[in-house]
């Protein structure tokens, strides 16, 4: 076996091995294969996860292939395909239907696709691990796409008192704000982030900072960025690099930080359960 393979990776062992992919563009930053393959190996499941870097123009062809892929339990979905896969599913969980995005899709025996989104659950689980009390919390969510929408929804569902939203696409911000106000009438939702002072959480839920991107989700010279201070939890959904420019900036100010890998780890069991795997006996 090549020494370059991930720890915990197992070779395809039988002709019946379940083939599970994570689909996105790019996929060099994804952490799910490491997490899933280690658990498959630990509990002896004949399955393997790998990445598929699919261009947006080819996503319809991927969906058609997935429907006929007999040894695939489904797929994990990352940017930029969360909305496209949601539109292609035959059935969605209530939260995925509300948000119009998925990050996990189960393939039924007849080829039907059932989608859910667990990003918010993973984020909430990780934040609780850092000691954040979500009930009554105040948070800023930068990026209102699939991950950001799921995080905002999960925080609202956990009893957050105030959410401040921002996205370069003002229409996307307004849409998410409207959905949250309708579903959580007592929640205060602001469609701008003028400052971060006194917030419990400030999360970058956009791709800014991914791979070699040195940008911050909020301009360093902005009044919002300059108001960031402890004990606000500075979090990021980006998984590569592990310490993004946003997290590095927060850490330099003395803020606690939460990585994208922690969010992934916080939802592995939920994603696996949707796909039909029981990870309850592994950490």
What does this structure look like?
This protein is of the alpha/beta class and 283 residues long. It is 34% helix and 18% strand. It has eleven helices and twelve strands. The chain has helices at residues 32-43, 59-67, 82-88, 94-99, 119-129, 146-157, 170-183, 223-226, 245-252, 260-265, 268-275; strands at 18-24, 47-53, 74-77, 91-92, 104-107, 113-116, 138-142, 162-166, 188-190, 201-204, 233-236, 257-258. The strands form two sheets. The chain has a six-stranded mixed β-sheet, sandwiched between helices. It has a six-stranded parallel β-sheet with strand order 9-8-7-10-11-12, sandwiched between helices. Strand 11 (233-236), helix 9 (245-252) and strand 12 form a beta-alpha-beta unit. Helix 5 (119-129) packs across helix 6 (146-157). It is globular. It starts with 17 loop residues before the first strand and ends in an 8-residue tail after the last helix. The model is unreliable at 1-6 (pLDDT under 50).
């Amino acid at each position: 076996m090549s020494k370059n393979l991930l720890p915990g990776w197992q070779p395809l062992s039988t002709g019946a091995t379940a083939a599970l992919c994570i689909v996105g563009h790019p996929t060099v930053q994804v952490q799910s294969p490491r997490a899933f393959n280690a658990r498959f190996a630990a509990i002896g499941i004949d399955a393997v996860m790998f990445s598929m870097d699919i261009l947006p123009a080819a996503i319809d062809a991927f969906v058609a292939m997935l429907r006929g892929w007999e040894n695939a339990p489904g797929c994990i979905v990352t940017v930029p395909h969360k909305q496209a896969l949601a539109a292609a599913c035959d059935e969605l969980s209530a939260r995925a239907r509300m948000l119009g995005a998925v990050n996990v899709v189960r393939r039924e025996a007849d080829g039907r696709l059932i989608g859910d989104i667990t990003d918010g659950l993973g984020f909430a689980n990780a934040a609780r691990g850092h000691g954040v009390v979500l009930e009554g919390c105040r948070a800023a969510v930068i990026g209102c796409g699939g991950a950001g929408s799921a995080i905002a929804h999960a925080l609202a569902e956990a009893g957050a008192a105030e959410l401040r939203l921002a996205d370069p696409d003002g229409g996307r911000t307004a849409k998410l704000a409207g959905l949250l106000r309708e579903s959580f009438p007592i929640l205060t939702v602001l469609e701008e982030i003028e400052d971060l002072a006194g917030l419990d959480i400030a999360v970058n839920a956009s791709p800014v900072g991914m791979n070699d991107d040195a940008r911050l989700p909020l301009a360093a010279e902005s009044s919002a960025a300059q108001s960031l201070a402890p004990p606000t939890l500075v979090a990021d959904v980006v998984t590569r690099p592990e310490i993004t420019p946003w997290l590095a900036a927060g850490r330099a100010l003395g803020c606690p930080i939460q990585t994208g890998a922690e969010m992934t780890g916080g939802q592995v069991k939920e994603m696996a359960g949707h796909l039909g795997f029981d990870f309850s006996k592994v950490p």
